[in-house]
Amino acid sequence: MSESATSAAGGAPGLAVASHATAAEMHAQDSESGSEESEMAEPPARDSAAEIPVTSNGDASDSQGEHKWDVKHMMTGGPTLKETRIISSSYGSSSEGIIEAEPYRAGSLKNTQSGPVVITDDISKNIALEKLEQVKKWSISTYKCTRQVLSEKLGRGSKTVDLELESQIEILRETKKKYENLLRLARQMATQFYQVVQTQRQLGDAFGELSVKSPELHEEFGYNAETQKLLCKNGETLLGAINFFIASVNTLVNKTIEDTLIAVKHYENARIEYDAYRTDLEELNLGPRDAVTIPKIEQSQQQFQIHKEKFDKLRGSVSVKLKFLDENKIKVMHNQLLLFHNAVSAYFAGNQQQLEQVLKQFHIKLKAPGSDGPSWLEEQ
User: Fold this and answer.
1) Which of 81, 168, 178, 317 is the most buried (most CB within 10 A)?
2) E strands in 66-108
3) Dihedral of CA 171/176/181/182: which sign?
4) Burial of 375 by CB count in 10 Å (0-12 exposed, 13-18 middle, 19+ buried)?
């Protein structure tokens, strides 16, 4: 019994030494391949793991727990998952299951970020410089124009004036004010007359009801009911004509004339810029001419020429717009005034046929009786 135990005890160390020798050979092969990382990954605890004592029945002793702690310490202190490389081979080969550690290269991640970042910075810098240059030009132009406006109001600066064009612009502004007042009164008349028509309709319904319930006054109530209904119908026709008149004048005032006044506003701004750079050029020409002032004079001359061309272009555009506006205004108002006069005259004369003829002449369509659509007044 003691001999078998002795032989078992003597055989176990022999297996451990052989296992240790095999590991040493594998380590020598890795060293010959020139991998310095395997030397860093070789833990000094392999000898202690190989020399674990074994009992007679082949079970590990209590020191196995210490061996497990050493292995855990090796795994935590060794290379991480990203720092290792697993070499796969055929089953049963001597290098099966070997894990080789490679050094962690921190610079490898930095190399992934390259040139485009610098290009983006350059683009952003160029955009910022362009915006800065635009703000600079805008500030200079604003300063010059503000100085020109103040000098004109104080009576110190000169102003370029086109007498004919200025008089036309002034007449246009006065015409717009008068047409706005006309439009306001026409809308007021339409609102009040609409209330009259509604009252006539209610009055006609009341006469008709009394005509049925009062046999002794049946004819009298009936006449008045028919008269009020006829007046109500003619009133709705007149309201359609007035509504058409209001819509046409509103388009003329708030669209056609307003667009022309916007062009006039651009022209006046261009005139201020032109006078501002003209004054600046005149001041530079009055000063001395040397190496410092000559480049400034040339630059001021270029800016003056640019704003002069812009001013001349807008002045010609405004002159053309005013001419066409005057022709359009006469044509539109001629038709609308004729419509208003004929409709009102026919209504108060009681000429129903003439009133309907006026609407046909100007292609005005009223809402059909009983239609579900909104009335012309509700659309306003």
Assistant:
1) 168
2) 84-86, 99-101
3) positive
4) middle
pTM of the model: 0.60
**Residue 111 has what pLDDT?**
47
- Inter-CA distances, 377 with 103, 234, 266, Å: 87, 16, 37
Question: Which helix (DSSP H) or strand (DSSP E) does residue 211 occupy?
Answer: helix 163-213
C-alpha of 257 from chain center: 30
281: Cβ–Cβ under 8 A, 6 or more apart, which residues?
297, 300, 301, 304
Confidence at residue 367, expressed as pLDDT on a 0 to 100 scale:
64
Helix 163-213 × helix 258-286 angle, to 10°: 160
CA–CA separation, 216 and 224 (whole Å): 15
The two tokens of residue 356 are 């309907």
| 204, two tokens | 């006609």
CA 239 – CA 347 distance, rounded (Å)? 10
- Classified as helix, coil or strand, 60 is strand
Q: What is the CA radius of gyration of the chain?
A: 52
| pLDDT for 51 | 45
Give the model's pLDDT for residue 46. 45
Instruction: Say which residue the tokens 């506006």 belong to.
Output: 325
Q: According to the model, what pLDDT value does residue 317 have? A: 94
CA atoms within 13 A on the CB side of 170: 7
Which whole-number Å values give the CA distances from 306 to 103, 231, 255, 318, in the listed order? Answer: 68, 66, 31, 19
Those residues with Cβ within 8 angstroms of residue 144's Cβ, 6 or more apart along the chain or in another chain: 273, 276, 277, 280
Q: Contacts by 332-341 with C-beta closer than 8 Å and gap 24+?
A: 332/248, 332/252, 333/249, 333/252, 335/248, 335/362, 336/244, 336/245, 336/248, 336/249, 339/241, 339/244, 339/245, 340/241, 340/242, 340/245
Place of tokens 């028919």: 226
| Low-confidence residues in the chain, pLDDT < 50 | 1-104, 106-118, 369-374, 376-380
194-232 pLDDT, tens digit per residue, is 999 999 999 999 999 998 988 899 889 999 999 999 999
Sign, CA dihedral 229-234-238-243, equals positive
Is 324:257 a contact under the CB 8 Å cutoff? Answer: no
Q: Phi/psi of residue 376, each to 5°? A: -65, -30
Tokens of 147: 């100085």
What is the per-residue pLDDT for 368? 56
